[in-house]
Amino acid sequence: MPERKRIPLVWGLAALAAAALAFYHLYHVLIPFLLSFALAYVLSPVIGLFEARGLRRQVVVVALYLGAAAAAGLLANTAANLALGQLQEFKSQGPRYEAKTEAFVESLRVGLNARLPFGLRLRRPAVEDVQSSLMSQAQNLPGLVLGVFPVLSLLFLVPFITFFLLADGQASIDALIQRCPSRYVEQALHLVSEIDASLGNYVRGLVFVAAAIFLASFVGLVILGVDQALGIAAVAGISSFIPYAGAVLGAVVGGLAAGFQFGTLAAGLKVVALFVLIRIGDEILLQPFVARHSVKLHPLLFLLALMVGGDLFGFVGLLFAIPVLCILKALTRVLLAWYASEAAGPAAPEIADAAAVPFV
Amino acid sequence: MLKTFKKLFFDPQIQRKRQFLKSLALFRDLSDRDLGLLSQALHSRVYHSGEALFQEGDIGRALFILESGKVDLLKGDARIFQVKPGDFFGEMALLEQLPRTASAVAAERSQLFLLYRSKLDSLLHYHPRIGVVIMSHLAQLLSARLRRVSAAGVSEHAAARDA
Does ipTM exceed 0.85? Predict the structure, then answer.
């Protein structure tokens, strides 16, 4: 039988370091691929359910895309009509909103002036100041419009890449296993399974939480009578893909919207209280459910990963900090299990003691 | 018409894989849908002639199912069994992660399916029916092996006593 050589650990670590360095320099290019991987992860179990019934994977993916396209068209049409209606309302109610905003800012100024120590006073903002500020912002408009293009390109690129990832399914993993030296096949499978278990469950849990936060925010904002309930709930739901961000953004945007709409501080505070309740509900009701099915990480590790991710890669770093942490945890677990079994020797199962009794 | 529809929408590869899995004693009582779900948990790999699947003493982590080709099970340099298509081996790895008691080498170009332990755990969690059927068949297989070893031990003991 041919003697097989082991690949030294140092080569594995060097390859990992080289990959990390390449990622650091190329992450802008990889953003659409990362987002596509995440989307494919969320959708693949749905495709798998139909594939298990014998349907061609490609047929299911095409059907899913056609359905999504129809839904997106319908949604875009509804959103356009809604936006048009709101624009018209804003046009007719514009002066009223302006007066309300002015009254709201003035009441805030007077309230704060009454409480400020050492004779400090807030000056009433002159209309000219606001106008010049708006004009200076208007000069940045072309840059802002150009800044939207990468986002639009993502809207086309991500579904395009996701299509191929979904259509390929497990074939790409099997191709990887095929190229893996036979000695390491079982270890490679171990790693793939661990990453799949923790990352897949985390991403699916995240989608579940986002949907729940969107729904709870929408219902709460409708009850409070906030005009832009759908938009604010969507902001809260989508931003919850970054841990802790959903409730904070929802509270800020919703609080400001309610404050301007009703012209009172109390209305804004009610919305903030709603998002505090949603955050507590998320922590008590949803997170235990999500954590049970995904990796268990210490909250401080969570925070550290977010800070490091945000510092190194900005928004993308915040979005992918926890999934990367999941992968690192799976990698560590596999390496430790590998070391424990190969170096320290395998442990006999506890039930082995029962084997002393003769079987009859 | 119906034939064209089936050809267009249904994957013959999945059908073939399901038929193959159904023929194995380990997956006998599973429905077509269960077999479809099970096939998603399996990884496929081709081993070339002379390529080692694992060596004696390696920690076992997966069950191997031979779809085509031949695989030799070796103890040292001696062949103790030749695995044929439709046979499976290394099933103890699904129960405990202990060293393999023999080596496995492809005797010719062979196509195998691998079921990794954590995939079985995942099936047990999300599709308990499938997991329970597999575990039940595994227990029956081990019981049969135990009885065979026991019978061989008794006859060896009797032969030694008669001598």
Answer: no
Q: CA dist A26 to A20, A48, A120, Å?
A: 10, 32, 50
Contact: B52, A186; criterion CB under 8 Å = no
- pLDDT, tens only, A130-150: 666 666 766 676 666 666 666
Question: Hey, which residues 195-254 in chain A have their CB within 8 Å of chain B?
Answer: 197
Distance CA A209, CA A214 (A): 8
Across the interface, whether the CB atoms of B15 and A177 are under 8 A apart is answered no
Buried b (16+ CB within 10 A) or exposed e, A98-117: eebeeebbeeeeeeeeeeee
Give me the DSSP letters along A19-31: HHHHHHHHHHHHH
Closest-CA distance, A197 to chain B, in angstroms, reads 8
State both tokens at A205.
């849990």
Sorted by where each starts, the structural domains of chain B and their CATH numbers stand as 16-154 (2.60.120.10)
What is the residue-averaged pLDDT of chain A?
79
Per CB-CB distance under 8 Å, the chain B contacts of A46 are none
Distance from the Cα of B162 to chain A's closest Cα (Å) equals 24
